[in-house]
Design goal:
By secondary structure, this protein is mainly α. The chain has 10 helices and no strands. Helix 1 runs antiparallel to helix 2 (45-69).
Length: 238
């Protein structure tokens, strides 16, 4: 992750991103405490591998801004190359976990599991897309920094949804996505406003907002289609 601003003015998408990443990590640990961290011995190997890959990505999102702030460009580039292994590992293990979950579900739970399958696969696709945009613009520091910071936004929905599922059961399930995506929209709206006078890179947050809207709409529409239900049944087959 790179920054286009001076070290004295760290921005939340560049050298100042790391505190927000740590806050998101705290929310994720809280949300996943009951289903995972509080019962490590009961989790499958793929779950541990996926968690390690996610923690590695969080660590990179914290370390890279600090390296930039310290002007350690060589180490920034070296660590950035590790993302070519970490992000695909996140994607592969996420898909394996989603398929394992739907295969273990009883037949009557397939519609719900089909929805969960789509949530996992679409979130993974979103992470790959935003990371890919960051890699594509790696020579443009302004865009690169914003897109790489944007990868953290793809983790808000999974983290907040589990906070609501396991810690605030009074919240009705249909509200999960509206609340979590509402948080993403609010963050991106603030960043767009703050970024409006930036000489370069302004379009990144606008593009990210559009991508998240498309993702949210697809979550509302796609899982209930016959085509997706057939995909879910195929994934559930041994």
């Amino acid at each position: 992750m790179a920054s286009t601003v001076s070290p004295g003015r760290p921005r939340p998408w560049g050298a100042g991103a790391w505190p927000w990443v740590l806050l998101l990590l705290a929310v994720a640990v809280f949300g996943f405490w009951k289903p995972y961290f509080g019962r490590l011995g009961q989790a499958q190997g793929w779950v541990h591998l996926h968690t390690l890959a996610m923690l590695a990505w969080f660590a990179m999102l914290v370390a890279q801004p600090l390296l930039i702030r310290g002007r350690r460009w060589v180490w920034h580039r070296r660590l950035g190359k590790a993302s070519y292994a970490v992000v695909p590992l996140i994607a592969v293990t996420a898909l394996l976990l989603a398929q394992s979950r739907i295969r273990d579900a009883p037949a009557e739970a397939l519609p719900i599991q089909g929805m969960i399958l789509y949530l996992g696969m679409s979130a993974t696709a979103m992470l790959l897309l935003v990371w890919g945009l960051g890699i594509h613009h790696r020579r443009d520091a302004a865009l690169h920094a914003r897109y790489m910071a944007g990868t953290a936004l793809t983790m808000i929905d999974p983290a907040l949804a589990r906070v609501m599922i396991f810690w605030t059961p009074s919240v009705p399930p249909p509200a999960y996505q509206f609340i979590s995506f509402g948080v993403v929209y609010a963050i991106l709206s603030v960043l767009i406003v703050r970024d409006r006078h930036a000489p370069r890179g302004r379009r990144a947050f606008v593009i990210l907002l559009g991508l998240f809207v498309v993702l949210h709409v697809s979550i509302l529409l796609v899982p209930g289609t016959l085509a997706w239900q057939r995909i879910a049944i195929w994934c559930a087959s041994p």
